[in-house]
Write a structure and sequence with these properties.
It contains 14 helices and 14 strands. By secondary structure, it is an alpha/beta fold. The protein binds pyridoxal-5'-phosphate.
């Protein structure tokens, strides 16, 4: 293919016409989200018959609840566009849901619905002023979205020895460092329960962070997509409880309702005049990009956010199963001596293989990216490297997602599994030993034992 710029002559004038599909140079280093990329890589491997233990992709995959199936069936004929901010009954239902589940005041006016919380977070980064404080590690999309929004991402250190805690002193240090580099930090992005670490903020840390943000004039975007999936030993507390005037909550259907493909998310803006201004800006941006989320999905989602004991049971049982599977794998890693924060919510583990640095170096592995590639190529195990979450390359942390360890619907009766969930004890609490028969989980546990035995062998030979 000849990429030499062509000289246009048809108009009789000479100018450089470029290639027919010239890319925006400013975005040329953007790559596909690593989490979607690993999922596609696993699908390709499996299509070629290569067995793969899938710890790479965090997707809630329980079957759709019949209440939602019925609601969607009834809404199929709603083919008109919805209002940009969402259908009024849905906004009302979400406001009620937020009041019930977060204990914060919320009116329908404060709710903006969109096609997933991901584009809403991006839209917020575009309409709010300033650069962005991004904890390290944090979800794969925060840094790219910040860059796409034309903002600087300022890393905030977290404490890996203490559930990746975020402290006011680390936040202040990040602001000072950011300002020294010419940045103007005005936004803090946080996520609890957390992807990638599985940790949750303790209530006193949420309060301290919110007080700090309020005193510093920082807007918090609190990504609460996993709020419903707390494992039980730490409660979810929204910073909006302590800082209602400066905290925006985002959430949606993807995790608690296992309906990521429905693409339905919401943002809860602060009340008052400033919140209204923000809502106006967000709606203007949304109106020029996605117009509205899909109308049938919005109408069906009303049922998800309306008080219903069957749905509450479903969500509680999903959370319990995620907690069980994640905790089982955590126990295996701990028995193998791998440092890993005890999971508190969602379906992630964030182990650190630093103790095997020398052994790995013998295999020419010195970065988390190489480590993840090695685990995939040699051990048929898909994971994501810490670099995908903003870590320095030499940090040997990996993110393991446990949500694909239930087996496919063809292999496992997921409704039966959900029905067993209530008999499972809260992880770490004394209770009846209940073990579920999950072959994919057992395989992952065995594979980790083999990997570490191999690395221990290499360490001993050093
Ligand atoms: N935030 C975090 C931390 C996530 O892990 C995800 C999905 O993986 C999202 C947001 C995206 O959610 P949604 O499906 O609502 O766009």
């Amino acid at each position: 293919m000849d990429h030499t710029p062509r000289q246009a002559t048809t108009t009789g004038q000479q100018f450089e016409a470029g290639t027919p599909l010239e890319l925006n140079a400013a975005l040329s280093n953007m790559v596909s989200s690593p989490t979607l990329a690993i999922n596609e890589a696993v699908a390709r491997r499996r299509a070629q018959g290569q067995e793969t233990i899938h710890l790479g992709f965090g997707e809630a995959t329980f079957p759709l609840h019949p209440v939602l199936r019925q609601a969607l069936a009834e809404a199929l004929e709603s083919t008109g566009y919805a209002p940009v901010a969402g259908v009024p009954k849905l906004r009302q239902a979400i406001a009620g849901y937020i009041q019930r589940t977060r204990g914060v005041n919320c009116t329908a006016e404060q709710v903006i619905v969109g096609p997933g919380s991901k584009p809403l977070i991006y839209a917020l980064l575009r309409v709010l002023d300033g650069d962005v404080l991004v904890p390290r590690p944090s979800w794969v999309s925060y840094n790219p979205q910040t860059r796409l929004a034309g903002r600087k991402a300022i890393p905030v250190a977290t404490d890996p020895t203490d559930h990746h805690r975020l402290t006011p002193s680390a936040l202040t240090e990040a602001i000072v460092n950011g300002r020294a580099k010419g940045a103007k930090p005005r936004i803090l992005l946080v996520n609890s329960p957390n992807n990638p670490t599985g940790s949750m903020f303790a209530e006193e840390d949420v309060a301290a962070m919110a007080t700090w943000a309020s005193e510093t004039g920082i807007t918090i975007i609190s990504d609460e997509i996993y709020a419903e999936l707390a494992h039980g030993w730490r409660s979810h507390v929204s910073p909006a409880r302590f800082y209602p005037t400066g905290c925006i909550i985002t959430g949606g259907l993807s995790k608690a309702f296992s309906a990521g493909g429905w693409r339905l998310g919401y943002a809860i803006l602060p009340g008052g005049e400033l919140g209204k201004e923000l809502g106006k800006a967000l709606r203007a941006l949304a109106s020029e990009i996605w117009s509205a989320a899909a109308t049938p999905i919005e109408e069906a989602a009303i049922a998800a956010f309306t008080l219903n004991t069957d749905l509450e049971t479903y969500v509680r049982r999903s959370a319990r199963l995620h907690s069980y599977v994640t905790h089982e794998l955590y126990l295996t890693l701990s028995e193998l001596g791998i440092a890993c924060p005890r999971p508190a919510g969602a379906f992630y583990l964030y182990p650190d293989l630093a103790p095997w640095r020398d052994a790995l170096a013998r295999l020419n592995i010195t970065t988390s990216t190489q480590l993840a590639q090695y685990l995939l190529d040699t051990w048929d195990m898909a994971t994501l490297p810490g670099t995908a979450f903003g870590e320095e390359p030499a940090t040997l942390r990996l993110r393991l997602a446990t949500s694909m360890l239930y087996g496919s619907p063809q292999q496992t009766d997921l409704w039966h599994l959900l029905s067993q969930a209530d008999s499972l004890p809260t992880p770490g609490e004394a209770g009846q030993e209940v073990k579920l028969d999950l072959p994919e989980l057992a395989k992952a546990q065995e594979r980790w034992k083999e990997v570490i035995a191999h690395l221990n062998g290499l360490s001993q030979a050093l």
